[in-house]
Amino acid sequence: MNMQSIGESAGVIWKILYGDNRKWEYQELKKATGLRDRELNAAIGWLAREGKIQFEEGDSEHPTALYIELSLYIG
């Protein structure tokens, strides 16, 4: 894994999040991208560092869920 492959994985995630503006659970995003945990985590870190995604902890119904969604500001 190198910077280029991490950036490419981040692009895969970005396209999925941009195309379907909703909250995604980690496992759901993993399945949709086909990325391994290490690749997915690195790409999520890349997008988080750029301020392009948001995280939300689960609620009382899904306390261990991690939701990931696009940060898109219009204005």
From TrEMBL:
It comes from Bacteroides gallinaceum. This is Winged helix-turn-helix domain-containing protein. It comes from the Bacteria. InterPro entries: DUF2582 (IPR019707), WH-like_DNA-bd_sf (IPR036388). The lineage of its organism: Bacteria, Pseudomonadati, Bacteroidota, Bacteroidia, Bacteroidales.
